[in-house]
Design brief:
Blueprint (H helix, E strand, L loop, with lengths): L14 E9 L4 E3 L5 E10 L3 E12 L2 E11 L2 E11 L3 E9 L4 E11 L4 E3 L8 E10 L1
Antiparallel strand pairs: 1-10, 2-9, 3-8, 4-7, 4-9, 4-10, 5-6, 5-8
């Protein structure tokens, strides 16, 4: 029985053109109620479809506060996500598909808090992280 979502190899299947990955390597925090930059990747794309995946775990310094994250491409917000913190680690994932024109493009993740101090501490707390993956595929 074939697996759900599985397709046998075909010459018409999309092929991976390039992959770019960046992971936060230092502890960061913010008290900003407006979006501020967190992590970004600038790549030259070839007109293919870009699959964007952002994964994060972190916390706020108080219970029942939200951390918000948004994907911005070339200065234009594309998509956002959030999580509510119970004063311990929580996590979120954001995925998007975009088809930029051939050329250089910046994929940026910004973040903000609803109140208090948001923290992502991959050095201090091993379970916390922020990572951005861009995969360009072409037919």
């Amino acid at each position: 029985m074939p697996l759900l979502g599985y397709a046998p190899y075909s010459s018409l299947a999309p092929s991976l053109t390039q992959t770019s990955f960046l992971e936060l390597s230092s502890d960061v925090s913010t008290t900003s109620a407006s979006f501020v930059d967190l992590i970004s990747i600038t790549i030259y794309t070839y007109g293919g479809t870009c699959l964007v995946t952002f994964s994060v775990s972190g916390e706020d310094s108080a219970n029942n506060r939200n951390l918000y994250f948004q994907l911005v491409m070339d200065g234009t917000p594309i998509k956002w996500t959030q999580f509510r913190t119970p004063n311990t680690q929580n996590s979120a994932c954001l995925t998007a598909t975009v088809i930029p024109a051939e050329g250089s493009h910046t994929f940026l993740i910004q973040w903000r808090v609803s109140a208090n101090t948001g923290q992502i501490r991959p050095v201090t707390v091993n379970e916390e992280h922020a990572a951005l993956l861009i995969e360009e595929v072409a037919r």
